[in-house]
Amino acid sequence: MDQTDRAKQKDAEAPAEILRDLDGLIGLDEVKAQVRKTISLVELGKARERAGLPHLDLTPHLVFTGNPGTGKTTVARIVGRIYKESGLLKSGHMVEVDRGGLVADFTGQTATKTIKVIEQALDGVLFIDEAYSLAPDWGGGRKDPFGEEAIATLLKAMEDNRDRLVVIVAGYKDEMERFINSNPGLKSRFDTYIEFEDYSSDELLKIFVHMGAELGVRLSLDAQIAVAHLMESLDTGKKGFGNGRTVRKIFRECFARQAKRLRERGRVKVDVTVFEAADIPKVGEKDFS
User: Fold this and answer.
1) Cβ atoms of residues 70 and 62 within 8 Å
2) For the whole model, what pTM was predicted?
3) Which of 9, 44, 179, 253 is deepest in the core (most CB within 10 A)?
4) What is the CA radius of gyration of the chain?
5) Contact at 8 Å (CB) between 241 and 67?
């Protein structure tokens, strides 16, 4: 096998490797299934195109719904990589923005600002977090001219760059449904919704342990029990619950307590690779929302 054949083989294996990254994420079983379904449809459309068959009107643009910290940004990056390997996108990189990245402070400047962001995202994925903020519900039929300008610019770019731009919008479920239904152009371009459910307490514990493993920290038996009780006490399912972000806050607090324990013990040796029960906040001791 020469170098060219080896390179082709490596390229052929790339999608499977990326899917392993997707499958390696904690939880998100329904998300993984929906992403695979979407990718299969995209690949079918490309195969039909190569075979000279009539074009299928399949949109690669996606709506991600759910609470913060549920892996939406991570999955969006993986989708971009898979779209690249499927031949849908040339680069597959991701540009992440929110309302502030698209909307300007003065009238007439939003289109220019939005276009600059779109140009950065060409051949890749434009990920817009809290996209519903572009069409706020002010009531009384009032509209946000700045947000409308950003949306109009985005829709035109999506039409003009069908083969070079994929847009993924994300946010809370109800707000995203209102956002998509606020403009016929949005509704015609976004028809695939993927819901990111909150992590279970067991999954939150796995995320905590994984964070520790990445930083060379393990849990004593008592600490494992304390963390498990703490995760069970969290208000999962509540709108705005931080999921992975909440776990990250707890992890940082554990580090702070370990540092305090280390300082107080002075010359007494402390194993900095282990979280003890004293490093874990007690249930109800602190608000991590």
Assistant:
1) no
2) 0.88
3) 179
4) 23
5) yes
pLDDT in tens, 51-69: 999 988 788 999 999 999 9
Q: Cα–Cα distance between 179 and 158 in angstroms, integer? A: 17
For 174-228, what is each residue's pLDDT tens digit? 999 999 999 999 999 998 999 999 999 999 999 999 999 999 999 999 999 999 9
CA distance 281 to 170: 32
Tokens of 84: 């690249």
Six-digit token pair at 64?
């991600």
Same fold, 3-196 and 201-279: no
Please state, in angstroms and rounded to a whole number, the distance separating the CA atoms of residues 208 and 227: 8
Q: 55: Cβ–Cβ under 8 A, 6 or more apart, which residues?
A: 45, 48, 49
Residue type present at position 177: E
* Closest listed residue to residue 66, CA positions, set 169, 184, 202: 169
Query: Which H helix or E strand runs over 195?
Result: strand 193-196
The third-level CATH classification (topology) of the domain covering 201-279 is Helicase, Ruva Protein; domain 3 (1.10.8)
> Is residue 54 exposed (0-12), middle (13-18) or buried (19+ Cβ within 10 Å)?
exposed
Pairs from 251-259 (Cβ < 8 Å, separation ≥ 24): 251/208, 251/211, 251/212, 253/281, 253/286, 253/288, 254/279, 254/280, 254/281, 255/279, 257/281
Which amino acid is located at 256 in the chain?
A
- 3-state SS, residue 122: coil
Residue ranges covered by each domain of the chain: 3-196, 201-279
Superfamily for the 3-196 domain = P-loop containing nucleotide triphosphate hydrolases (3.40.50.300)
